[in-house]
Design brief:
- By secondary structure, this protein is an alpha/beta fold.
- The strands form three sheets. The chain has a three-stranded mixed beta sheet with strand order 1-3-2, with helices on one face. The protein has a three-stranded mixed beta sheet with strand order 5-8-6, with helices on one face. A two-stranded antiparallel sheet has the order 4-7.
- The chain contains four helices and eight strands, in the order H-H-H-E-E-E-E-H-E-E-E-E.
- The longest helix has 29 residues.
- 27% of the residues lie in helices and 17% in strands.
């Protein structure tokens, strides 16, 4: 009896070709699907900055914010006046008698400090701050005198108030020193009135009412 089944063949027939073609199409479809899924999961890739891009970098944003910030308003003058009147300067005291220099300083309401030298004469050699220097009222000007301090007679201030006594001493070229405060009348002075002193010497003043001695209370002996 004859076997009517077809032989298996060598695998090069039309069936084998269709199988290979179908498998290739499947592989391509899977690759496309995988790429699409990966693109969706990864999201839109970051765009690189290019000229004209609508999203400037962070540094540019900061600069723009600083450029658009409102300008700082300058502080207005307070209008407060200083203690230096316009044009107040140290007077021309160099080359003049030191007493005249002191008067010129007092007229401008400036302080003074006399420094006497070892030479001769009463003229001022230099001053600090220098003449014509702008200063504030109350500034002390140091004045250097060529010669030594002259002699002066100590005034009698024993009948004056402490403040008036101090003014008289300063006028005479002396300086007060307070032993018991600056209130009340002068009760004592040292050196005494009429003594000889020199410019810049100190006179000690005792001011205030004399303390009264309390009365002594006697007690009767106990019997």
């Amino acid at each position: 009896m004859t076997d009517e089944r077809q032989p298996a063949g060598d695998g090069t027939g039309p069936g084998r070709g269709r199988l290979l073609l179908g498998g290739g199409v499947a592989v391509v479809l899977l690759a496309v699907i995988g790429a699409s899924v990966g693109w969706i999961l990864a999201g839109e890739p970051e765009r690189s900055a290019v000229p004209g891009d609508s999203a400037p970098p962070a540094a540019a944003s900061t600069s723009a914010s600083a450029a658009t910030a409102p300008p700082t308003t300058a502080a207005q003058p307070s209008g407060t006046r200083t203690s230096a009147p316009p044009g107040l300067t140290v007077p021309e005291v160099v080359g003049v008698d030191f007493e005249q220099a002191r008067r010129d300083l007092r007229e401008r309401r400036l302080g003074w400090r006399l420094v006497f030298g070892t030479g001769t004469g009463r003229t001022v050699e230099r001053a600090s701050p220098a003449p014509r220097t702008p200063v504030k009222r109350g500034t002390t000007v140091t004045v250097w005198v060529a010669g030594p301090a002259p002699a002066v007679t100590v005034p009698d201030v024993g009948t004056l108030s402490c403040s008036d006594a101090a003014d008289d001493l300063v006028e005479a070229g002396l300086y007060p020193r307070y032993a018991t405060g600056r209130q009340g009348p002068v009760t004592a002075q040292q050196p005494v009135a009429g003594s000889t002193a020199r410019w810049n010497d100190q006179v000690t003043l005792t001011c205030g009412d004399k303390a009264s001695t309390p009365p002594t209370v006697s007690t009767s002996p106990t019997p």
